[in-house]
Amino acid sequence: MKYIDEFNDPQLARRLLDEIHATATRPWALMEVCGGQTHSIIRHGIDQLLPEKVELIHGPGCPVCVTPLEVIDKALEIASRPGVIFCSFGDMLRVPGTDRDLFRVKGEGGDVRVVYSPLDALELARCNPDREVVFFAIGFETTAPANAMAVHQARRLGLSNFSLLVSHVRVPPAVEAIMTAPECRVQGFLAAGHVCSVMGMAEYPELAERFRVPMVVTGFEPLDILEGIRRAVRQLERGEHRVENAYPRAVREEGNPAAVRMIEEVFEVTGRSWRGIGRIPDSGWRLTAAFRAYDAEHRFDVGGIRTEEPAECRAGEVLQGLIKPTECAAFGTTCTPRTPLGATMVSSEGACAAYYLYRRMNAPAAQTGGAGKQEVAPVA
To answer: Beta strand 267-274 with 243-245: parallel, antiparallel or unpaired?
Structure first.
């Protein structure tokens, strides 16, 4: 396949669906790890086209969604200070903190700017030597190389007014946390192709073997996802639990060694809190001692901020795959994209936003606490 349209071909999709229907003889529950995959699934109605035996559980793979509330509050505190230019990707501006968001800070006079790359923030630091420039460095392994490069460049250029507020998370420890949770029903994973394009697949065989679950590295177009589901179901029916690469046009076994070297030079593994889930050991990165001078949390002394999640928001259960968004009483009522309670309703990759955007407002809540295949309204 040479062109993107081929990955949306309805005839090829029907062939894959027919094979999935023919293969699945027992109920299986698969988790797609990435929020980009979730949006593609909901947008194209893939979950509605699958056999009743195959359920898709939405995982925690949205970097905006899993950024913990306390880090949002640290961002708000830093962005409110005079002399600071606070830079972020656009989604983060509407993620609610304890009592406001970055848009509110901007409206109150804070210099909050949307950028498209950490190197844009680095350029702002170069052009504004009298201002402190902070970049909100969130994300999974995918965005870590660019953020590491920005810090590396800042040191090379001698820019002392540039720093990162880091909230990087790692996928393999999250998979382990999901599989060891008492309520876990996941029997197979569609692994995030963009993460594996950076880090490779070396960390996954041990997880697949230990938890006896197939893990299929999958892309984001409809046919990518259907092919990932087909391979995962085939393994489950055969009693296999291997790592397969269904995204070879972007993913190599070793990943991107140059990007990994850059990450390992600038960052070190640490425990990290995930919004709505809690602290997961070894699930994040922080700047190493050699680059600690560029750590905004230390520079602005905001490490002591602690918060509590709002009780009415069930985003943590959505992120763990325990419920579908429509099972939350606040969904579409007190929680909408204009008045979000949690990041899953804000982010362009959030599961709640996907359900709201693609006309699932009338989907009846399942009565099983997430178990079984949910009945949903047809996608228009």
So the answer is: unpaired
Let me know if residue 310 belongs to a domain.
no
Residue 363 lies in a domain: no
Q: What is the pLDDT of residues 6-59, one digit of tens each?
A: 787 889 999 999 999 999 999 999 999 998 999 999 999 999 999 999 999 998
Same domain, 263 and 276: yes
Residue type, 247: Y
What would the DSSP string read from start to end of 179-200? HHSTT----EEEEEHHHHHHH-
Q: How many CA atoms lie within 13 A of 57 on its CB side?
A: 28
Range of the domain at 326: 315-357
CATH of residue 164's domain is: 3.40.50.11740
Q: How many Cα atoms are found within 13 Å in the side-chain-facing hemisphere of 304?
A: 2
Per the structure block, which two tokens stand in for 105?
Answer: 């800070």
pLDDT one-digit tens code per residue, 143-177: 999 999 999 999 999 999 999 999 999 999 999 99
| Number of domains forming the structure of the chain | 3
Could you tell me which of 196, 131, 132, 127 has the C-alpha nearest to residue 165? 132
CB 269 within 8 A of CB 285: yes
Asked whether residue 231 falls in the same domain as residue 89, the answer is no
In terms of domains, do 148 and 234 share one?
no
Q: What is the CA radius of gyration of the chain?
A: 21
**Number of Cβ atoms within 10 Å of the Cβ of 54:** 23
Instruction: Report the amino acid identity of residue 319.
Output: L
Shared domain for 157 and 241, answered yes or no, is: no
Cα–Cα distance measured from residue 304 to residue 43, given in angstroms and rounded to the nearest whole number: 40
pTM: 0.88
pLDDT exceeds 70 at position 364: no
Q: pLDDT tens, 208-266?
A: 999 999 999 999 999 999 999 999 999 999 999 999 999 999 999 999 999 999 999 99
